[in-house]
Amino acid sequence: MKRMRNRHHRSGGGGGASRGNNGQIPLNRNHVFESNGPDLRIRGTAQQLFEKYLQLGRDATGTGDRVQAEAYFQHAEHYFRMLNAMNQAAQAAQQERAERQRNYEQAKQERRESRERRGEQEDEEMSPPVSERRPAERRRRTEERDEDVEQDSED
């Protein structure tokens, strides 16, 4: 059996896209909308619908139908606002990713500096014999690994 593209498909009417996220339309540039315009039904992305309604509004203005032109321009404005909301959401997500990356790099640098400081302190002290040093080194490596795992889980 062929799988349906949209799991939340509703048969019959409904008008518009399915609203799965608490009644809000997903902010995805590739999301396809079904628009029930003033006198026709159009399907496409927000960008495509904006351009189509804008063109229909210009055409209606050219034929002298100011009422129809205004209806098309209002629909175009709706999709223009949706495009702005999508762009703002994408920009916020990009800033959040950049901030997470900066925090990760900073924590990584701090861990590296901490290891270097511990390494310098070990060089200054006399080294114990190899037989005594191995368990301590294993313990130290295990502690460092545990710290790294904690840091990564916090990020």
TrEMBL record:
Domain of life per record: Bacteria
Domain DUF4167: 19-88
Protein name: DUF4167 domain-containing protein
Record region (Disordered): 1-38, 88-155
Compositionally biased residues, Basic residues: 1-11
Compositionally biased tracts (Acidic residues): 145-155
A Pfam family assignment: DUF4167
